[in-house]
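Quick check before the chapter quiz. The format below is the same one you will see on the exam, so make sure you can read both the input and the output lines.
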Amino acid sequence: MGRLSIELQIVVLIIIMTTYFAGCVSPNCGNSYCSPPNVCCNEICMEPCPNGYSMDSDCACYRNNWVKCNCGEFTYCEPGGECINDEWVAKCPSDYFRGDDGICYPIGTVKCNCGEFTYCEAGGVCINNEWVAKCPAGYFDGADGSCYPIGSVKCNCGGFTYCEAGGTCCNDKWLVCPTGYYLGSDCLCYQF
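Here is the expected output.
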């Protein structure tokens, strides 16, 4: 009976020690001792993150309000951004979009590749590397970037590129004689 009580005492002692050490030894820490305030992460006993930070599965501390981004070398990034070419950049405002060059442009602009611009206001044309508004109805875009009435002809007369059809350049002036008249060498209109 005395021997049984020693065995019983050993069993009780093992139960007490197991219960005591169960709070101190964590199987997630490789069975090593990790006491509070330290925490276990991937079987490693780590110091806790400072206030305002949380530990992720990689055992690193990140700001609480940051978002998981997996962008370039970063796992967590400031909220309100997006990953573009492995760089975390601010999102475009709601009435903008991100162009191929990574810049935000107003919705409604179009890709133009005109001069120094990649995106331009819709409804225009690129003339001599300059984005100009399209001409209204009844007009056309001249090679010089100006709008001319449909029916105008290229004249290169006295600084003008396009002139009214049916005329002639005389002394650097574009002259059009009325029907039934002709233009004389003196730049005057004479009746037939």
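If your answer matched, good. Residues 1-48 form one domain.
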